[in-house]
Amino acid sequence: MKTILITGATSGIGKSTTELFAKQGNRIIICGRRTDILESLKSELSQFTEIFSLMFDVRNLDEVEAAINSLPEEWKDIDVLINNAGNAHGLDPLSEGKTDDWDSMIEGNVKGLLYVSKMIIPRMKTKNLGHIINISSVAARQTYANGVVYCATKKAVDVISEGMRLELTEFGIKITNIQPGAVETDFSLVRFKGDNEKAANVYAGYEPLKAEDIADAIAYCVNAPKHVTISDMTIYPSAQSEPRTIYRK
Question: Of 3, 10, 126, 137, which has the highest C-beta tally within 10 A?
Answer without folding.
Answer: 137
